[in-house]
């Protein structure tokens, strides 16, 4: 049996002056999982994704990434998507998409080729030469997804990726995320407070006051 991509056992996260963001979280993210992390504002959804991404260290319990066989902070292992599509304004969309690959040392021509394939996969092949300020919010979010796709990660973490978009665009972005997760064979975890988004995924985890209320898993 392959190891889970992420395994949390009794994981807790307390910020500075005693704010408990997560408490006694037990969960697994495994290859092929497509999960919505749901809960009200302040319940701990982002904190859980940050822990999965290795961006913050838990203050109690344990987190391991044995199935990733390396650091979760490597974009070729974990791809991150946030609410605001962060693109470098001075670079074209294609240059933005290829950037993590060129940073990692891939030759520019090869990185651009991968970038073009990724833009094609997310449905904005025509926008490679555009600058970020020339594209819509939904198109920018597709470009961010393409940047993740180009790195071929094993796990995609998306934190409220559609909360700035209208409902129709949001639905299309979730469809794109599900499709790229299937195509790459990457697990997908989306934090959302939107029941329509949650309803699109096969599993829903409910977070309340930093605790996971529902998980169909056994550690
Ligand atoms: N860097 C931080 N420093 C101190 N407290 C924090 C920090 N980040 C989050 N918190 C607190 O941790 C708790 C959980 O926050 P978190 O952002 O994980 O919730 P969330 O469910 O993602 O909320 P939202 O839906 O509003 O984004 C909240 O009480 C929040 O104020």
UniProtKB/TrEMBL annotation:
<dbReference type="GO" id="GO:0022857">
    <property type="term" value="F:transmembrane transporter activity"/>
</dbReference>
<dbReference type="GO" id="GO:0005524">
    <property type="term" value="F:ATP binding"/>
</dbReference>
<protein>
    <submittedName>
        <fullName>ATP-binding cassette domain-containing protein</fullName>
    </submittedName>
</protein>
<feature type="domain" description="ABC transporter">
    <location>
        <begin position="6"/>
        <end position="217"/>
    </location>
</feature>
<dbReference type="InterPro" id="IPR003593">
    <property type="entry name" value="AAA+_ATPase"/>
</dbReference>
<dbReference type="InterPro" id="IPR027417">
    <property type="entry name" value="P-loop_NTPase"/>
</dbReference>
<keyword id="KW-0547">Nucleotide-binding</keyword>
<dbReference type="InterPro" id="IPR015854">
    <property type="entry name" value="ABC_transpr_LolD-like"/>
</dbReference>
<dbReference type="GO" id="GO:0016887">
    <property type="term" value="F:ATP hydrolysis activity"/>
</dbReference>
<dbReference type="InterPro" id="IPR017871">
    <property type="entry name" value="ABC_transporter-like_CS"/>
</dbReference>
<keyword id="KW-0067">ATP-binding</keyword>
<dbReference type="InterPro" id="IPR003439">
    <property type="entry name" value="ABC_transporter-like_ATP-bd"/>
</dbReference>
<dbReference type="GO" id="GO:0005886">
    <property type="term" value="C:plasma membrane"/>
</dbReference>
<dbReference type="Pfam" id="PF00005">
    <property type="entry name" value="ABC_tran"/>
</dbReference>
């Amino acid at each position: 049996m392959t190891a889970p991509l992420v395994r949390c056992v009794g994981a807790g996260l307390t910020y500075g002056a005693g704010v408990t963001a997560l408490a006694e979280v037990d969960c697994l993210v495994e290859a092929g999982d497509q999960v919505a992390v749901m809960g009200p504002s302040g319940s701990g959804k982002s904190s859980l994704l940050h822990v999965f991404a290795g961006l913050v260290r838990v203050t109690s319990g344990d987190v391991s990434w044995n199935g990733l066989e390396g650091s979760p902070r490597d974009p070729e292992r974990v791809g991150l998507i946030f609410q605001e599509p962060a693109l470098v304004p001075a670079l074209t969309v294609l240059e933005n998409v290829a950037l993590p690959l060129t940073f990692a040392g891939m030759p520019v021509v090869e990185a651009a080729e991968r970038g073009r394939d990724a833009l094609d996969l997310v449905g904005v092949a025509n926008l490679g030469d555009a600058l970020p300020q020339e594209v819509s919010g939904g198109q920018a979010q597709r470009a961010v997804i393409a940047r993740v796709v180009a790195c071929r990660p094993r796990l995609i973490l998306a934190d409220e990726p559609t909360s700035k978009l209208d409902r129709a665009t949001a639905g299309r972005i979730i469809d794109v995320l599900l499709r790229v997760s299937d195509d790459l064979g990457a697990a997908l975890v989306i934090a959302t407070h939107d029941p329509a988004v949650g309803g699109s995924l096969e599993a829903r985890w409910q977070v309340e006051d930093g605790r996971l209320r529902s998980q169909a898993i056994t550690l």
